């Protein structure tokens, strides 16, 4: 696999390896945002995608609403579920969509 700190290709996604945490935590890999993945590519999860868009895009589009009502928008999204159900594809589409709006997005796996 190479030395720590190497960058290698993984299915068209650039992955940079990180060192293990000194506190015994998990390794976190930062991924580059793939500009070609959009929500239209995902089939059969329209209700989930709509809820995710509402949760993430409303605070970006209407920050004054959240400020006026003293509501803290979500700071992250945790997708969980069985393998091969679209979690990674949804995360990539979300990262692509928010980066196009001009907001920096970190995509961890």
UniProtKB/TrEMBL annotation:
Instruction: Name one cellular component (GO) term.
Output: nucleus
Ranges for domain ATPase AAA-type core: 77-98
Sorted alphabetically, the Gene Ontology BP terms of this entry are:
nucleosome assembly; nucleosome disassembly; transcription initiation-coupled chromatin remodeling
Q: Which Gene3D superfamilies match?
A: P-loop containing nucleotide triphosphate hydrolases
List the GO molecular function terms. ATP binding; ATP hydrolysis activity; chromatin binding; histone binding
Keywords on record: ATP-binding, Nucleotide-binding
Query: Residues annotated as region Disordered?
Result: 1-26
Q: Which Pfam families does its entry note?
A: AAA (PF00004)
Give the family per the record.
Belongs to the AAA ATPase family.
Q: Indicate what this protein is called per its UniProt record.
A: ATPase AAA-type core domain-containing protein
Organism (species): Cryptomeria japonica
**What does the record give as the organism's lineage?**
Eukaryota, Viridiplantae, Streptophyta, Embryophyta, Tracheophyta
């Amino acid at each position: 696999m190479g030395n720590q700190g190497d960058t290698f290709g993984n299915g068209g996604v650039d992955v940079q390896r990180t060192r293990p945490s000194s506190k015994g935590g998990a390794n976190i890999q930062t991924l580059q945002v793939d500009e070609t993945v959009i929500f239209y590519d995902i089939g059969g999860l329209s209700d989930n995608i709509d809820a995710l868009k509402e949760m993430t895009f409303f605070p970006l589009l209407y920050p004054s609403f959240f400020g006026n009502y003293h509501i803290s928008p979500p700071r992250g999204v945790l997708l969980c579920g069985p393998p091969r159900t679209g979690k990674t594809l949804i995360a990539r589409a979300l990262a692509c969509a928010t980066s196009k709006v001009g907001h920096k997005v970190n995509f961890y796996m």
